[in-house]
Amino acid sequence: MNTDYFKNFPDQNGLFGEFGGSFLPPALVEQFKDITHSYLTISKSHKFISELRSIRKHFQGRPTPVYFAERLSNSLGGARIYLKREDLNHTGAHKLNHCMGEGLLAKFMGKKKLIAETGAGQHGVALATAAAYFGLQCEIHMGVVDIEKEHPNVIRMKLLGANVIPVSEGAGTLKEAVDSAFKAYLEDFETSIYCIGSVVGPHPFPMLVREFQRIVGIEAREQFFEMTGELPDNVIACVGGGSNAIGLFSAFLDDPCEIYGVEPSGAATMTKGRPGVIHGFKCYLLQDDDGKPAQVCSIASGLDYPGVGPEHSYLKDIGRIKYVTADDYECLEAFYTLSRVEGIIPALESAHAIAYALKLAKQKKYQSILINLSGRGDKDIDFITEKYGFTLEEMKARFK
Fold first, then answer.
1. What is the pLDDT of residues 68-121, one digit of tens each?
2. Whole-structure pTM over 0.85, yes or no?
3. Do both 190 and 52 map to the same domain?
4. CA distance 318 to 332
5. Is 374 a catalytic site residue?
Protein backbone atom coordinates (compact mmCIF):
# COMPACT_ATOMS: atom_id res chain seq x y z
CA MET A 1 0.00 0.00 0.00
CA ASN A 2 1.04 3.65 -0.25
CA THR A 3 0.03 6.96 1.24
CA ASP A 4 -1.80 7.99 -1.95
CA TYR A 5 -4.08 4.95 -1.82
CA PHE A 6 -7.27 6.83 -0.92
CA LYS A 7 -6.63 9.41 -3.63
CA ASN A 8 -6.08 6.74 -6.27
CA PHE A 9 -8.78 4.21 -5.34
CA PRO A 10 -11.29 4.27 -6.75
CA ASP A 11 -10.18 5.92 -9.96
CA GLN A 12 -12.35 8.48 -11.77
CA ASN A 13 -14.44 5.65 -13.24
CA GLY A 14 -15.13 4.19 -9.82
CA LEU A 15 -12.79 1.23 -10.28
CA PHE A 16 -10.68 -0.59 -7.73
CA GLY A 17 -8.47 -2.44 -10.20
CA GLU A 18 -10.97 -4.40 -12.29
CA PHE A 19 -13.74 -4.14 -9.69
CA GLY A 20 -16.46 -1.56 -9.10
CA GLY A 21 -17.58 0.76 -11.85
CA SER A 22 -21.13 1.64 -12.73
CA PHE A 23 -23.50 -0.58 -14.73
CA LEU A 24 -26.77 1.35 -14.73
CA PRO A 25 -30.03 1.72 -16.65
CA PRO A 26 -29.75 4.78 -18.94
CA ALA A 27 -32.32 6.66 -16.86
CA LEU A 28 -30.04 6.57 -13.81
CA VAL A 29 -26.71 7.48 -15.40
CA GLU A 30 -27.15 11.23 -15.00
CA GLN A 31 -28.59 10.82 -11.51
CA PHE A 32 -25.52 8.94 -10.31
CA LYS A 33 -23.26 11.51 -11.96
CA ASP A 34 -25.16 14.16 -9.99
CA ILE A 35 -24.70 12.19 -6.76
CA THR A 36 -20.97 11.90 -7.46
CA HIS A 37 -20.64 15.61 -8.27
CA SER A 38 -22.62 16.60 -5.18
CA TYR A 39 -20.61 14.39 -2.86
CA LEU A 40 -17.25 15.52 -4.22
CA THR A 41 -18.41 19.13 -3.91
CA ILE A 42 -19.61 19.05 -0.31
CA SER A 43 -17.07 16.55 1.07
CA LYS A 44 -14.41 19.28 0.99
CA SER A 45 -16.73 21.93 2.41
CA HIS A 46 -15.92 23.29 5.86
CA LYS A 47 -19.65 23.70 6.57
CA PHE A 48 -20.41 20.07 5.67
CA ILE A 49 -17.45 18.69 7.64
CA SER A 50 -18.31 20.82 10.68
CA GLU A 51 -21.96 19.73 10.64
CA LEU A 52 -21.01 16.07 10.25
CA ARG A 53 -18.52 16.29 13.13
CA SER A 54 -21.13 17.95 15.32
CA ILE A 55 -23.66 15.20 14.50
CA ARG A 56 -21.11 12.50 15.30
CA LYS A 57 -20.23 14.02 18.65
CA HIS A 58 -23.56 15.31 19.93
CA PHE A 59 -26.08 12.96 18.26
CA GLN A 60 -24.26 9.71 17.59
CA GLY A 61 -22.09 9.75 20.72
CA ARG A 62 -18.74 9.38 18.99
CA PRO A 63 -16.01 8.50 19.56
CA THR A 64 -16.99 4.97 20.51
CA PRO A 65 -14.44 3.32 22.83
CA VAL A 66 -11.94 0.53 22.33
CA TYR A 67 -12.43 -1.97 25.15
CA PHE A 68 -9.98 -4.56 26.48
CA ALA A 69 -11.94 -7.81 26.94
CA GLU A 70 -9.93 -9.01 29.91
CA ARG A 71 -11.99 -11.99 31.01
CA LEU A 72 -12.31 -13.28 27.46
CA SER A 73 -8.58 -12.78 26.93
CA ASN A 74 -7.69 -14.65 30.13
CA SER A 75 -9.88 -17.57 29.09
CA LEU A 76 -7.94 -17.95 25.84
CA GLY A 77 -4.49 -18.47 27.33
CA GLY A 78 -2.51 -15.39 26.41
CA ALA A 79 -3.92 -13.52 23.42
CA ARG A 80 -5.21 -10.03 24.16
CA ILE A 81 -8.66 -9.26 22.74
CA TYR A 82 -9.81 -5.69 22.13
CA LEU A 83 -13.22 -4.58 20.85
CA LYS A 84 -14.02 -1.43 18.91
CA ARG A 85 -17.44 -0.78 20.42
CA GLU A 86 -19.54 0.31 17.43
CA ASP A 87 -22.47 -1.31 19.26
CA LEU A 88 -22.39 1.83 21.42
CA ASN A 89 -22.89 4.12 18.42
CA HIS A 90 -26.44 5.55 18.42
CA THR A 91 -28.95 3.02 16.96
CA GLY A 92 -26.63 0.18 18.00
CA ALA A 93 -24.34 -0.32 15.00
CA HIS A 94 -21.83 1.33 12.68
CA LYS A 95 -24.49 2.00 10.03
CA LEU A 96 -25.41 5.46 11.31
CA ASN A 97 -21.90 6.67 10.37
CA HIS A 98 -22.76 6.66 6.68
CA CYS A 99 -26.51 7.18 7.02
CA MET A 100 -26.10 10.61 8.61
CA GLY A 101 -23.64 11.49 5.85
CA GLU A 102 -26.08 10.29 3.19
CA GLY A 103 -28.83 12.31 4.86
CA LEU A 104 -26.68 15.44 4.69
CA LEU A 105 -25.98 14.71 1.03
CA ALA A 106 -29.70 14.30 0.30
CA LYS A 107 -30.41 17.60 2.06
CA PHE A 108 -27.75 19.34 -0.05
CA MET A 109 -29.24 17.87 -3.24
CA GLY A 110 -32.76 18.97 -2.32
CA LYS A 111 -34.15 15.42 -2.15
CA LYS A 112 -37.34 14.68 -0.22
CA LYS A 113 -37.10 10.92 0.33
CA LEU A 114 -34.48 8.35 1.34
CA ILE A 115 -34.88 4.86 -0.18
CA ALA A 116 -32.88 1.82 0.91
CA GLU A 117 -32.71 -1.90 1.43
CA THR A 118 -31.94 -3.62 4.71
CA GLY A 119 -31.09 -7.16 5.78
CA ALA A 120 -30.61 -7.32 9.52
CA GLY A 121 -32.46 -4.03 9.85
CA GLN A 122 -29.54 -2.03 11.22
CA HIS A 123 -29.14 0.02 8.05
CA GLY A 124 -32.90 0.48 7.90
CA VAL A 125 -33.05 1.73 11.49
CA ALA A 126 -30.07 4.02 10.93
CA LEU A 127 -31.54 5.49 7.75
CA ALA A 128 -34.94 5.94 9.37
CA THR A 129 -33.15 7.76 12.17
CA ALA A 130 -31.35 10.01 9.68
CA ALA A 131 -34.62 10.73 7.88
CA ALA A 132 -36.30 11.72 11.14
CA TYR A 133 -33.31 13.93 12.06
CA PHE A 134 -33.35 15.77 8.71
CA GLY A 135 -37.14 15.83 8.27
CA LEU A 136 -37.18 13.55 5.20
CA GLN A 137 -39.44 10.72 4.09
CA CYS A 138 -38.03 7.20 4.35
CA GLU A 139 -38.83 3.97 2.51
CA ILE A 140 -37.11 0.72 3.53
CA HIS A 141 -37.31 -2.50 1.50
CA MET A 142 -36.82 -5.69 3.54
CA GLY A 143 -37.17 -9.37 2.72
CA VAL A 144 -40.05 -11.18 4.41
CA VAL A 145 -37.66 -13.75 5.89
CA ASP A 146 -35.63 -11.00 7.51
CA ILE A 147 -38.75 -9.17 8.69
CA GLU A 148 -39.68 -12.25 10.69
CA LYS A 149 -36.15 -12.80 12.05
CA GLU A 150 -35.44 -9.16 12.88
CA HIS A 151 -38.84 -8.08 14.22
CA PRO A 152 -37.46 -5.64 16.86
CA ASN A 153 -35.75 -3.60 14.15
CA VAL A 154 -38.92 -3.56 12.04
CA ILE A 155 -40.75 -2.00 14.99
CA ARG A 156 -37.98 0.56 15.45
CA MET A 157 -38.11 1.57 11.78
CA LYS A 158 -41.85 2.07 11.92
CA LEU A 159 -41.65 4.06 15.16
CA LEU A 160 -39.12 6.34 13.49
CA GLY A 161 -41.59 6.98 10.65
CA ALA A 162 -40.24 4.74 7.89
CA ASN A 163 -42.48 2.96 5.42
CA VAL A 164 -41.29 -0.68 5.52
CA ILE A 165 -41.91 -2.52 2.22
CA PRO A 166 -42.02 -6.34 2.56
CA VAL A 167 -40.26 -8.17 -0.29
CA SER A 168 -41.45 -11.72 -0.93
CA GLU A 169 -39.85 -12.45 -4.30
CA GLY A 170 -37.17 -15.12 -4.55
CA ALA A 171 -35.60 -16.05 -1.23
CA GLY A 172 -37.14 -13.02 0.46
CA THR A 173 -33.80 -11.85 1.89
CA LEU A 174 -31.22 -9.12 1.30
CA LYS A 175 -30.55 -9.57 -2.42
CA GLU A 176 -34.27 -9.33 -3.22
CA ALA A 177 -34.58 -6.29 -0.95
CA VAL A 178 -31.85 -4.57 -2.98
CA ASP A 179 -33.63 -5.48 -6.23
CA SER A 180 -36.87 -4.01 -4.92
CA ALA A 181 -35.26 -0.81 -3.60
CA PHE A 182 -33.48 -0.20 -6.92
CA LYS A 183 -36.79 -0.61 -8.76
CA ALA A 184 -38.51 1.88 -6.44
CA TYR A 185 -35.69 4.37 -6.89
CA LEU A 186 -35.87 4.02 -10.67
CA GLU A 187 -39.53 5.07 -10.48
CA ASP A 188 -38.88 8.12 -8.26
CA PHE A 189 -35.28 9.25 -8.78
CA GLU A 190 -36.01 12.94 -9.23
CA THR A 191 -37.25 13.53 -5.68
CA SER A 192 -35.50 10.66 -3.84
CA ILE A 193 -32.03 9.26 -3.32
CA TYR A 194 -31.09 5.62 -2.95
CA CYS A 195 -28.93 5.35 0.17
CA ILE A 196 -27.02 2.11 -0.30
CA GLY A 197 -26.33 0.33 2.99
CA SER A 198 -22.77 -0.86 2.43
CA VAL A 199 -19.64 -0.36 0.31
CA VAL A 200 -21.46 -1.91 -2.66
CA GLY A 201 -23.47 -0.69 -5.63
CA PRO A 202 -22.55 1.58 -8.54
CA HIS A 203 -19.96 4.33 -8.16
CA PRO A 204 -19.84 6.54 -6.08
CA PHE A 205 -21.36 4.50 -3.23
CA PRO A 206 -18.43 2.15 -2.49
CA MET A 207 -16.24 5.25 -2.14
CA LEU A 208 -18.84 7.41 -0.42
CA VAL A 209 -19.76 4.84 2.26
CA ARG A 210 -16.08 4.00 2.83
CA GLU A 211 -15.25 7.64 3.45
CA PHE A 212 -18.05 8.00 6.00
CA GLN A 213 -17.02 4.75 7.72
CA ARG A 214 -13.31 5.56 7.92
CA ILE A 215 -13.98 7.30 11.24
CA VAL A 216 -14.15 3.84 12.83
CA GLY A 217 -10.58 2.99 11.87
CA ILE A 218 -9.22 6.48 12.56
CA GLU A 219 -10.58 6.37 16.10
CA ALA A 220 -9.59 2.76 16.73
CA ARG A 221 -5.98 3.21 15.63
CA GLU A 222 -5.48 6.24 17.86
CA GLN A 223 -7.28 4.65 20.81
CA PHE A 224 -5.41 1.36 20.58
CA PHE A 225 -2.03 3.09 20.43
CA GLU A 226 -2.95 5.30 23.38
CA MET A 227 -3.97 2.22 25.40
CA THR A 228 -1.02 -0.02 24.54
CA GLY A 229 1.77 2.08 23.04
CA GLU A 230 1.73 -0.06 19.91
CA LEU A 231 -0.50 -1.14 17.04
CA PRO A 232 -2.55 -4.35 17.06
CA ASP A 233 -0.95 -7.49 15.67
CA ASN A 234 -4.26 -8.59 14.13
CA VAL A 235 -7.36 -6.70 12.96
CA ILE A 236 -10.67 -8.51 12.35
CA ALA A 237 -14.17 -7.61 11.12
CA CYS A 238 -17.13 -9.44 9.62
CA VAL A 239 -17.81 -9.02 5.91
CA GLY A 240 -21.12 -9.12 4.06
CA GLY A 241 -21.14 -6.10 1.78
CA GLY A 242 -18.22 -4.92 3.89
CA SER A 243 -18.91 -1.43 5.29
CA ASN A 244 -17.90 -2.03 8.91
CA ALA A 245 -14.84 -3.95 7.77
CA ILE A 246 -13.56 -1.33 5.33
CA GLY A 247 -14.20 1.31 7.98
CA LEU A 248 -11.84 -0.41 10.41
CA PHE A 249 -9.35 -1.82 7.90
CA SER A 250 -8.78 1.50 6.13
CA ALA A 251 -6.69 2.85 9.00
CA PHE A 252 -4.35 -0.15 9.08
CA LEU A 253 -3.64 -0.85 5.41
CA ASP A 254 -0.13 0.66 5.64
CA ASP A 255 0.66 -0.90 9.02
CA PRO A 256 2.39 -4.23 9.84
CA CYS A 257 -0.90 -5.81 10.96
CA GLU A 258 -2.52 -8.99 9.77
CA ILE A 259 -6.05 -8.12 8.58
CA TYR A 260 -8.88 -10.66 8.40
CA GLY A 261 -12.34 -10.29 6.87
CA VAL A 262 -14.73 -12.96 8.16
CA GLU A 263 -17.57 -14.12 5.93
CA PRO A 264 -20.34 -16.59 6.80
CA SER A 265 -19.58 -20.02 5.38
CA GLY A 266 -23.01 -20.04 3.71
CA ALA A 267 -22.22 -16.82 1.83
CA ALA A 268 -18.46 -17.17 1.35
CA THR A 269 -18.14 -14.87 -1.63
CA MET A 270 -14.38 -14.41 -1.37
CA THR A 271 -13.70 -18.12 -0.97
CA LYS A 272 -16.10 -19.57 -3.54
CA GLY A 273 -17.05 -16.67 -5.80
CA ARG A 274 -15.68 -15.40 -9.08
CA PRO A 275 -15.80 -11.96 -10.72
CA GLY A 276 -19.27 -10.95 -11.88
CA VAL A 277 -21.73 -8.06 -11.98
CA ILE A 278 -24.56 -7.54 -9.49
CA HIS A 279 -26.65 -4.46 -8.65
CA GLY A 280 -24.69 -2.20 -10.98
CA PHE A 281 -21.08 -3.03 -10.03
CA LYS A 282 -18.43 -5.69 -10.52
CA CYS A 283 -17.12 -7.75 -7.61
CA TYR A 284 -16.44 -11.27 -6.49
CA LEU A 285 -19.83 -12.93 -6.74
CA LEU A 286 -21.32 -16.29 -5.84
CA GLN A 287 -22.89 -17.56 -9.06
CA ASP A 288 -24.94 -20.53 -10.19
CA ASP A 289 -24.20 -22.61 -13.28
CA ASP A 290 -25.89 -19.99 -15.47
CA GLY A 291 -23.79 -17.14 -14.08
CA LYS A 292 -26.67 -15.65 -12.08
CA PRO A 293 -26.26 -14.66 -8.41
CA ALA A 294 -26.50 -17.83 -6.32
CA GLN A 295 -28.75 -18.36 -3.33
CA VAL A 296 -26.91 -17.84 -0.05
CA CYS A 297 -27.73 -18.71 3.53
CA SER A 298 -26.47 -17.30 6.82
CA ILE A 299 -27.91 -17.06 10.30
CA ALA A 300 -26.91 -13.37 10.13
CA SER A 301 -29.33 -11.49 7.88
CA GLY A 302 -26.91 -8.62 7.37
CA LEU A 303 -24.32 -10.94 5.78
CA ASP A 304 -26.77 -12.82 3.55
CA TYR A 305 -25.55 -11.38 0.24
CA PRO A 306 -23.91 -13.13 -2.76
CA GLY A 307 -21.70 -10.16 -3.64
CA VAL A 308 -19.19 -8.05 -1.74
CA GLY A 309 -17.73 -4.57 -1.93
CA PRO A 310 -15.46 -3.99 -4.94
CA GLU A 311 -12.70 -2.60 -2.72
CA HIS A 312 -12.69 -5.84 -0.74
CA SER A 313 -12.42 -7.73 -4.03
CA TYR A 314 -9.39 -5.64 -4.97
CA LEU A 315 -7.74 -5.99 -1.54
CA LYS A 316 -8.17 -9.76 -1.78
CA ASP A 317 -6.52 -9.88 -5.20
CA ILE A 318 -3.48 -7.86 -4.11
CA GLY A 319 -3.13 -10.04 -1.02
CA ARG A 320 -3.45 -7.28 1.60
CA ILE A 321 -6.42 -8.81 3.43
CA LYS A 322 -7.10 -12.44 4.22
CA TYR A 323 -10.73 -13.47 3.84
CA VAL A 324 -11.84 -16.40 5.98
CA THR A 325 -15.12 -17.94 7.13
CA ALA A 326 -17.08 -18.82 10.24
CA ASP A 327 -20.11 -21.11 10.16
CA ASP A 328 -23.45 -20.70 11.94
CA TYR A 329 -22.43 -22.91 14.87
CA GLU A 330 -19.21 -20.97 15.46
CA CYS A 331 -21.16 -17.72 15.24
CA LEU A 332 -23.68 -18.86 17.85
CA GLU A 333 -20.92 -20.15 20.11
CA ALA A 334 -19.25 -16.73 19.98
CA PHE A 335 -22.60 -14.99 20.57
CA TYR A 336 -23.25 -16.88 23.81
CA THR A 337 -19.62 -16.73 24.93
CA LEU A 338 -19.24 -12.96 24.65
CA SER A 339 -22.63 -12.44 26.30
CA ARG A 340 -21.74 -14.51 29.38
CA VAL A 341 -18.02 -13.78 29.68
CA GLU A 342 -18.00 -10.03 28.98
CA GLY A 343 -21.61 -8.94 29.46
CA ILE A 344 -21.84 -7.79 25.84
CA ILE A 345 -24.52 -9.24 23.53
CA PRO A 346 -23.17 -8.94 19.98
CA ALA A 347 -25.11 -8.81 16.74
CA LEU A 348 -24.97 -12.11 14.88
CA GLU A 349 -23.03 -10.36 12.13
CA SER A 350 -20.36 -9.20 14.59
CA ALA A 351 -20.32 -12.63 16.23
CA HIS A 352 -18.70 -14.00 13.06
CA ALA A 353 -15.67 -11.77 13.73
CA ILE A 354 -15.63 -12.86 17.37
CA ALA A 355 -15.81 -16.50 16.29
CA TYR A 356 -12.76 -16.25 14.07
CA ALA A 357 -10.87 -14.29 16.73
CA LEU A 358 -11.46 -17.11 19.23
CA LYS A 359 -9.82 -19.54 16.79
CA LEU A 360 -7.00 -17.17 15.91
CA ALA A 361 -6.22 -16.53 19.57
CA LYS A 362 -5.32 -20.19 20.02
CA GLN A 363 -2.83 -19.97 17.16
CA LYS A 364 -1.32 -16.60 18.08
CA LYS A 365 -0.73 -16.61 21.82
CA TYR A 366 0.47 -13.35 23.33
CA GLN A 367 -0.54 -11.36 20.27
CA SER A 368 -3.16 -8.59 20.27
CA ILE A 369 -6.39 -8.87 18.30
CA LEU A 370 -8.59 -5.85 17.56
CA ILE A 371 -12.15 -6.73 16.53
CA ASN A 372 -14.80 -4.42 15.16
CA LEU A 373 -17.85 -5.15 17.29
CA SER A 374 -20.00 -3.62 14.58
CA GLY A 375 -23.41 -3.98 16.23
CA ARG A 376 -25.32 -5.05 19.31
CA GLY A 377 -27.57 -8.08 19.43
CA ASP A 378 -30.87 -6.59 20.62
CA LYS A 379 -32.35 -7.28 17.20
CA ASP A 380 -31.38 -10.98 17.37
CA ILE A 381 -32.35 -12.01 20.89
CA ASP A 382 -35.95 -13.04 20.19
CA PHE A 383 -34.93 -15.22 17.25
CA ILE A 384 -31.95 -16.72 19.09
CA THR A 385 -33.65 -17.52 22.38
CA GLU A 386 -36.77 -18.96 20.77
CA LYS A 387 -34.75 -21.26 18.52
CA TYR A 388 -31.65 -22.02 20.59
CA GLY A 389 -32.39 -21.15 24.23
CA PHE A 390 -30.58 -18.99 26.77
CA THR A 391 -27.30 -20.83 27.29
CA LEU A 392 -24.46 -22.24 25.26
CA GLU A 393 -25.37 -25.70 26.49
CA GLU A 394 -28.97 -25.31 25.30
CA MET A 395 -27.74 -24.09 21.93
CA LYS A 396 -25.45 -27.09 21.51
CA ALA A 397 -28.33 -29.43 22.32
CA ARG A 398 -30.74 -27.74 19.87
CA PHE A 399 -28.41 -26.89 17.00
CA LYS A 400 -29.07 -28.82 13.81
1. 999 999 999 889 999 999 999 999 999 999 999 999 999 999 999 999 999 889
2. yes
3. yes
4. 32
5. yes
